[in-house]
From TrEMBL:
Biased composition regions of type Polar residues, renumbered to the chain: 383-393
Gene: GCP1
Subcellular location: Mitochondrion
Pfam families, A to Z: TsaD (PF00814)
Domain of life: Eukaryota
Cofactor(s) it depends on: a divalent metal cation
Cofactor: record remark: Binds 1 divalent metal cation per subunit.
Region feature Disordered, mapped onto this chain: 364-393
Gene Ontology biological process terms in this record: tRNA threonylcarbamoyladenosine modification
Protein name as catalogued: Glycoprotease 1
Species for this entry: Oryza nivara (Indian wild rice)
Stored HAMAP family: TsaD (MF_01445)
Amino acid sequence: MLGIETSCDDTAAAVVRGDGEILSQVVSSQEDLLVRWGGVAPKMAEEAHSLAIDQVVQKALDDANVSENDLSAVAVTVGPGLSLCLRVGVHKARKIAKSFRLPIVGVHHMEAHALVSRLVNKDLDFPFLALLISGGHNLLVLAHGLGQYVQLGTTIDDAIGEAYDKSARWLGLDMRKGGGPALEQLALEGDPNAVKFSVPMRQHKDCNFSYAGLKTQVRLAIESRNISTDDIPISSATKDDRQIRANIAASFQRVAVLHLEERCQRAVEWALKMEPSIKYFLLKVVSGGVASNQYVRTHLNQIAEKNGLQLVCPPPKLCTDNGVMIAWTGIEHFIAGRFDDPPAVDEPDDMQYDLRPRWPLGEEYSEGRSASRSMKTARVHPSLTSMIQGSVH
């Protein structure tokens, strides 16, 4: 299976065999663009994908020592993501599928993040509970089976990674290796109880996440202590100034992760009520603010152990957006008979594809529907789960 991924800012492709052997993995990153524009600029990202896609796919095939004729099918991310970026990958996948008469598997980006762990951990059977943490999103899902998910909790404003990154920037930390690692490092020097931050959303008995308020508390704590973090980076701070910043970092981290723990504990209880046979709690941190954060991992491991579950964390090289997860998810669905026929030979090159920029993974759990959700009114696709349940495959 060839897997192609262009949902956001990395152009990625990989070739994976049905037994899970990774034959190749190629990623072209847009890091320099991100630095230049201070984030993802969709038009620029689309252009970068368009320039990189042919080479990335060709290199994945060459490294795997296969040609298009050796493939069973092509898997490609169709959502969620930025539609301008998704289009580049889908266009390339359809072009290959059309030329070589190959079936296509449209893949859900977040499902792929969850399922790639099954490539690494052959024991990770359904059902399992998954917490997916990406730069702008936190998602708690119960995976009943392939393509069958119940959403237990999601982000209602800012995700934890974003809160780490913003707080690190406000504290004047060195952002080159990312805000999360810098903040975790500084927090080791601080007193986690020095600043009394309040834990978000304690009055809401659901599993949703909210970090906007905590971010505001951090900003106010910095302002009220009259430390000039804008002009004075942490490397030039006085001893006392550094201690104040370390205390804020440690206090922030304690409360940020406590919020995560409380939501996860409730999600574990809900999940075990629905699926008492669950053995695994999957933690997948998709790059961004809290990637490879030991403090987060340790605390979630405690939640898992307390509930008799095993915490599963995939290796860091499979945690960024990558083609392997798309190829592997494609394999799982292909084996289950879920794929589209090769595109018609006369399909025009400028065809409008079915892209799903806003595409939920599963249906919301009834107890998890929260009055605090500010549902955006933009068109949202029916969830992957409901689409699969409604199909006749």
